[in-house]
Amino acid sequence: MSTVSSLTLRSALADPALRESLLASLAMLVLSGGLIFLVTWIWVQAQAMRRARAPEVDWLIVCGHVLDAGRPSAVYRARLERAADLAGRDAGLQLMLAGGGEPSEAAVGRDWLVAQHGLSPERIRLEEASTDTFENLRHARTLLPARARTGIVTSRFHIARVMVYARQLGMTAQPVPAEASWRPTVANLAAGLREAVFLCWFACGRFWARLARRRHLLERIR
């Protein structure tokens, strides 16, 4: 199943497991006359537009985003700003920044929070081993204290996929949108379509793996 928003089609086709899940997903998409994608897109938009509630958490996982010339992108800054705002209100709140690379998205995010908001590095843990959203959460899951009340900070267009991944990994987490509300901008609409593609791929691939009892595929999402 696809777990990578930045994964190129070429690299996906080079991976036998992802190639199998992609073909299965395309077959289901054709057989449904595109209905599966439509339902998925509606779900992505519905989650993006949901009214946020005040998080009651001990830890915030902050999803990374591709860097802009080694600095946090506008999307990433919005996520970091939201985490900083909540951390400023609750002195006991701990942050886990997720995202690998060189330099890692997590490390760049920490440095930005320290420089821009004066947050203590002691409150920030880094998850730098991952290269995609699914790995972000899988690795973060192992770093969190037992029974920690957890929130996941990400962009509204990203919430649906993040929460599906979290549930797949057995995580009980609260979505914490970076933005106060969703706006119908071209960027947000395009991001919603992209998210629907990857979420549809994941869901269809998972369905195929369970239906056909493809253990090698199921192992990829545990």
TrEMBL record:
InterPro entries: Cell_Envelope_Assoc, DUF218, Rossmann-like_a/b/a_fold. The keyword Membrane applies. The keyword Membrane applies. It comes from Wenzhouxiangella sediminis. The lineage of its organism: Bacteria, Pseudomonadati, Pseudomonadota, Gammaproteobacteria, Chromatiales. It holds the Pfam family DUF218. GO terms for cellular component: plasma membrane. Keywords: Membrane, Transmembrane, Transmembrane helix. This is YdcF family protein.
